[in-house]
Design a protein that fits this description.
Elements: E1 6-10, H1 15-26, E2 30-34, H2 38-45, H3 56-65, E3 69-72, H4 76-81, E4 84-87, H5 102-115, E5 123-126, H6 134-147, E6 156-159, H7 169-174, E7 181-185, H8 188-198, E8 205-208, H9 210-240, H10 245-254, H11 275-288, H12 294-318, E9 325-329, H13 345-354, E10 358-362, H14 367-374, E11 379-380, H15 384-388, E12 393-396, E13 416-419, E14 434-437
Parallel strand pairs: 1-2, 1-4, 2-3, 4-5, 5-6, 7-8, 9-10, 9-12, 10-11, 12-13, 13-14
Antiparallel strand pairs: 6-7
Helix pairs in contact: 1-3, 5-6, 9-11, 9-12, 11-12, 12-13
The structure holds uridine-5'-diphosphate-xylopyranose (UDX).
Residues 162-166, 221, 224, 228, 263-265, 267, 269-272, 274-275, 333-334 line the site of uridine-5'-diphosphate-xylopyranose.
Amino acid sequence: MKDGLNISVIGGTGYVGLTAAACLAYKGHMVCCVDIDPEKVQLANQGLSAFYENDLEKILKHVASERRLMATLDYKGPIKDSSIVFLCAGTPSRKDGDIDLSQVREATRSIARALKTKKDYFVLVIKSTVMPGTTESVIIPLLERISGKRAGKDFGVCVNPEFLREGSAVKDFLFPKEQGIVIGELDEKSGDWLSKLYQGFDAGIFRTTINTAEMIKYARNAYLAKDISFANEIANICQRCNIDFLEVKKGLEMDSRIGKGRFINAGIGFGGSCFPKDVRALARKAEKVGIKPRILRATLEINDYQPKTFLSLVRQTIGNLKGVKVAVLGLAFKSGTDDLRESRSIPIVLGLLAEGAVLHVFDSKAGGRAKSIFGNKVHYSGTAKEALISADACIITTESAEFADPKLYDHMRGNFIFDGRRVLNCKRLNRRFIYAAIGFPAGDKI
Ligand code: UDX
């Protein structure tokens, strides 16, 4: 790309940073990933990543071979040469639900120190998910105090939230039409500077204030998480009324005001590094500003309830679980990832273990990571079939297409199937099975 820019990505080997870096390099820019983790830096320079993400390593290898992406522990050099610096440090949850800003503060201090010797104008782009007000009240003051430079004069600032979904993050970054691009700008010059980068993307750009952009990120995730918990509440009611929620969902989607593809797949709830953390953080922010976050708290409460109600369904259907061999299909918080963060499979597996069940677990990508959570309390199977062979019961916790094959379950010794994601069309199962799911009429013949 003739007008490729020099770009640095701070926190550049994490889920968001490495994906953004690889995609920007793929678009023709010269990108430097700056991180504090030597192992991840080394992996990135080999075109590899420490986590699984569809298409990421393919794109990384391509840009690394064209020497358009490199990774380093050094801040000074990359920032000196960059016209855009993305800040993609993580903001995990603290115990009280607030976000932990320590990584953002640390990265900001390092950027500020590098800024001292930088001559030319550049724009710092906050891509980390931070509470409304954080950029203006924490990041900019820290930058100015340590660097001695002035925001708006020596450098620009934008907030550019990411709307990447794990499993399709590369596609979501390169083709953001569906999600749109949001730019919160300190001033027009900052916004113009960053908008130039996105000219090459087919998507609408919404330019707004910095605080608004920070809020848009949280409001979007809270909205989507609320939809899931709404669907789960309706499904829980359907269950008690002997109604199939999937039929109700069809009726909901007929209404053009609701439409298809909404986040209304009922089941064991939402996991991942975003929805739980972002809804908790927004609820905390609401309380701090004197608003009772009724819907946000209910969204979280229903999400905590789903694994519990699923376990009761298992208990009610099978009875005493002691010594029962249970195959658990899927451990990651969603299919296509190896990410176990706040996965709904964790309370379900721990609950089954507490009742003495003997678990054989399978996940095509997260199996290795699962060992750090479940240790040797469960048996790890290399395939779904291996987990199912001689199982008395099976539990499905991710909506993986692999688990939708009804023939797969013919390997089981027992007859109980508990579908946490309604991934199976139970009518295609062998009639010997007893199929149960959240929002599926108990006792219905399949
Ligand atoms: C989400 C947002 O979709 C994305 O825009 C944001 O940038 C990051 O957070 P992600 O967490 O990767 O993306 O996964 P997503 O596909 O949204 O699913 C999140 C969780 O909700 C998963 O556990 C999934 O199983 C669950 N889910 C999703 C439901 O239970 N029901 C649904 O209808 C959809």
